[in-house]
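Need a sequence for this fold. Nothing fancy.
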């Protein structure tokens, strides 16, 4: 009886210990190879919010296993490198820096709306998967929001040949690189950021409206025509975090929505 009791107590303690076990995953800075693209002739500032630069996701899988995934500076490193490839002139600024003192065409501010992952104990496969829903807010040189673009990225890695938390790390890195590829292909198409190069015309029109004596009626009419040709500011509403049925990447134009991996059922936030 005593032996059986000790066995039962030992098993219960082991179960409690296993329930309290967790995994801590920390990513190293992510890099990408130089893409074969011509940079856009824009001068941009990239503002990195503190919560983006030090993003940590904590979750409990099926009520048993706790995960803490620290993306560290991987997002900040990736986006800083990516935008330096995509634009002629890039200035990285902190969350408290004032961009008004900079001579720029646009300000870009990235953020993360949602992070989800799945592990083999959930999917009953040998795969780890990561979904990251990013958002890019773009402001013109007057500080007004010009575009608000959400995009979702996906990465998947198999257990085979990897140990410990390496498969999940690899899946997260692949998701970030997927986001980089989406931005290279679709950023200008979805936000029309390249047109902000002509934004100084808006400043001229504003001065004319304020009664600048040197602006003639003809100059004002030309400025207004240029402003009319600029795309309207765009705003989209992102579905709430969690599994979604529609496209995970939304174009600014309803007729140009692209289809990407959806946040699946059985993910870590279920």
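Here you go.
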């Amino acid at each position: 009886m005593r032996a059986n009791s000790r066995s039962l107590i030992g098993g219960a303690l082991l179960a409690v210990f296993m329930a309290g076990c967790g995994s801590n995953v920390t990513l190293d800075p992510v890099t990408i190879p130089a893409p074969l693209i011509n940079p856009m002739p824009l001068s941009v500032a990239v503002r990195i919010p503190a919560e983006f630069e030090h993003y940590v996701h904590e979750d409990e899988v099926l009520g048993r296993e706790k995960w803490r995934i620290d993306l560290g500076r991987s997002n900040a490193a990736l986006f800083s490198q990516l935008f330096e490839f995509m634009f002629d002139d890039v200035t990285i600024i902190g969350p408290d820096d004032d961009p008004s003192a900079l001579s720029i065409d646009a300000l870009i501010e990235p953020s993360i709306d949602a992070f989800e992952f799945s592990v083999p104990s959930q999917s009953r496969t040998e795969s780890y998967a990561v979904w990251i829903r990013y958002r890019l807010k773009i402001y013109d040189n007057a500080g007004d929001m010009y575009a608000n673009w959400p995009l979702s990225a996906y990465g998947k890695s198999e257990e085979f040949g990897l140990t410990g938390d390496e498969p999940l790390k690899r899946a997260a890195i692949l998701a970030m690189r997927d986001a980089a590829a989406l931005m290279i292909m679709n950023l200008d198409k979805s936000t029309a950021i390249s047109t902000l190069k002509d934004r100084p015309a808006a400043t001229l029109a504003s001065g004319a409206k304020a009664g600048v004596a040197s602006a003639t009626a003809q100059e004002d009419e030309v400025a207004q025509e240029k402003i009319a040709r600029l795309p309207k500011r765009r705003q989209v509403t992102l579905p709430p975090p969690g599994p979604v049925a529609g496209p995970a990447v939304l174009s600014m134009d309803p007729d140009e929505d692209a289809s990407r991996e959806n946040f699946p059922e059985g993910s870590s936030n279920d």
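For context: The radius of gyration is 24 Å.
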